Amino acid sequence: MLSLRPNCECCNADLPPEAADARICSFECTFCADCADTRLQGRCPNCGGELLARPRRPAAALARHPASTERVFKPAGCAPSGA
C-alpha cells in the first residue's frame, strides 16, 4: 500500500493525500508537479525512475489506512539524476 508521503522532497511543499499535483517514482519518492516537471524533468533524483501522478486514495479507505506523516526533505539532493 502506498504511504502517501505528505510533502515534496525538493521544496517541502505540502502534498495532502488528495493532492492532484503529487508525483512519485516506483520507490515512492514524492515530489510536487512543479519540481517534478521543471527541476527534475520527470526523473527521480534518487533512483532515476519515472515520476508519475500519485494515485489518490478514496476517503473511506483513507480513514482506515491513513497517509504517512513522515516528511522527507532533501533540498541539496534535488538535481536530476545523472547531473
Automatic annotation (TrEMBL):
Query: Which InterPro entries does the protein's record reference?
Result: DUF1272
Name its species.
Methylibium petroleiphilum (strain ATCC BAA-1232 / LMG 22953 / PM1)
| Source organism, top-level taxon | Bacteria
> This protein is called what?
Urease-associated protein
